[in-house]
Specification:
The complex is a heterodimer of chains A (85) and B (170). By secondary structure, chain A is an alpha+beta fold. Chain A is built from 3 helices and 5 strands. The relative contact order of chain B is 0.21. The chains are: A alpha+beta (85), B alpha+beta (170).
Chain lengths: 85, 170
């Protein structure tokens, strides 16, 4: 499965990355799997996406939860809880 | 006799506009455009959010608003659609500014028109509460101690979820 990943706000800033394309192994099926997969990169990735961090995730511009199944070709975004208004 | 042109004017479809912009907005102009000569409008509720010069005990010199282009518009449209489904409103407008802002600057405008005040009051507050928790905007404050991302408030989540317990007004 291929995804376009995007990062926003404090996550984007800490990772020093706005977006990337990624090819995933077949066992990565849900948002939670993806998060765990990215954490395997270690260092700052393991910190920013760690268990203690409150994150939100959007799949194709829709807010989703950690058990949501990923879709091939989707745009997946990770960001902190929103603070607009 | 009511002229025919007045009728067609009145029955014009509501726009339910969403705007994300760097530039400031003028409340009076926006409300006039929102009313758009709709003679069924008997109530207009508007909310304007502004930048404060103090937050969490620190002076705020400036602020930058980031958002997720594409998702932001969708999220706001969805929120306005929900309000429209819940209350009998004539039209709604949401303007949210992005980029650098200074204390006292306007950040957000939510305006709703309806026949009677009850609907516009409720729909305006509903849209604002959901915007706070579901629209992908993030504030970064420039303080004397350096830049810091604003933390989400638990009270904002509570404000949004309380609408789930409220019965829709019919």
């Amino acid at each position: 499965m291929k995804l376009q990943l995007r990062y926003f706000a404090s996550i984007r800033e800490t990772l020093g990355l706005e977006q990337e394309s990624i090819e995933l192994p077949v066992e990565v099926r849900t948002v939670d799997d993806l998060r765990a997969h990215l954490r395997l990169r270690g260092g700052i990735w393991d910190e920013v996406l760690g268990e203690g961090m409150v994150l939100r995730c959007a799949l194709n511009h829709q807010m989703v939860n950690s058990s949501t199944e990923l879709v091939d070709g989707a745009e997946v975004a990770f960001f902190p809880p929103v603070t607009g208004g | 006799m009511v002229p025919k042109s007045l009728f067609s004017h009145r029955l014009r479809a509501a726009k339910m506009a969403i705007r994300i912009q760097q530039v400031d907005f003028d409340l009076t102009t926006e409300i006039t455009n929102l009313r758009n000569g709709d003679l069924q409008v008997g109530a207009i509720t508007s909310f304007v959010g502004t930048v404060r010069d103090m937050n969490e005990g620190s002076t705020v010199n400036a602020m930058t608003l980031e958002h997720y282009p594409g998702m932001t518009e969708k999220a706001l449209e969805d929120i306005v659609d929900q309000a429209k489904a819940r209350w009998d409103i004539r039209d709604a407008l949401v303007i949210h500014r992005i980029g650098p802002l200074m204390p006292a600057d306007q950040i957000v405008l939510v305006a709703v028109t309806s026949a009677h005040r009850g609907e516009s009051f409720l729909a305006c507050e509903f849209i604002m509460d959901y915007l706070k928790t579901a629209a992908p905007f993030w504030k970064k404050e420039d303080t004397p101690e350096g830049g810091r991302w604003v933390d989400a408030r638990v009270t904002d989540d509570a404000a949004a979820t309380r609408w789930n317990q409220k019965k829709p007004v019919s």
